[in-house]
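Hi V.,

You were right to ask for the full record rather than a summary. Here it is.
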Amino acid sequence: MQPDIAARVMIHEVAPRDGLQIEPRFVPTDEKVAWIDRLSGTGLAKIEITSFVSPKHVPALADGEEVVRRIRRQPGILYAALIPNARGAERAAATKLDEINVVISASETHNRANLRMDRAASFRALADIRTALADTGIALTSSIATAFGCPFEGRQDPAKVLDQVTRLLDEGCTAVTLADTTGMGNPRQVADLVAATLARHPGLPLTLHVHNTRGVGLANVLAGWQAGAVRFDAALGGLGGCPFAPGATGNVCTEDVVNMFEEMDVATAVDLDALIALSRDLPDMVGHDVPGQVRAAGRPLDLHLAPAFA
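Predicted structure:
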């Protein structure tokens, strides 16, 4: 598929959820709320602000309801949360979120490690999740974790992933994300699966969620876009990783993704300078440096004074 370079790509910020869930330091609720409010001012299409999971398993996000209640929402931005099961959906239903995201892995082993249930149980839970969300106005979406490879099982059969997309849509999901949970994908693989998914489901709101674990995150984003994807998850500063998958380092970096597209004259509607400023504040918030490149190097045309020549 030849991409429409004039079309806007939609950037989905996942650092408040996927970024913080693996951090050892609990970021105070006041700081989370202020951070999300600043993110809301940058023009992002969506912000995944928390997850409704057991605080015992992900203590960094134990304040999910309070965060959702206190943020200042901006028109035109979707606010989302991740849930693992029907109990998470019940908690989400009491909020005024725009959508919730259910994760079901392509890999049986990862699903058990991540959600403490097999894939069949995760699919059965979708009926209870739909019931919990009935009449709330909250949209149900789903992510297919380990869609490009599992650290326990290896490559996943693309046909199985495609069938899972179809089943999720049949079960009432309005959008689907293909997630490279531990950064095992490569550009050719990403392009092939994105193209096959969109060929089977034309018009599907398909999101690509990639990690930069092995240094090919931006290449995978570009390959996905060239194959027709226009929605991309990313995390400010490159934060994040799955706490239940070995080697799951950070997400592809939001400001690096935005910079790449903007340099290609592909619109994002995101204020890149504001993102970079936010990213440069991250080390103080999380207590360590972050791997984003643009925050360190600056934008390509942030020029420097020429050296003095004799």
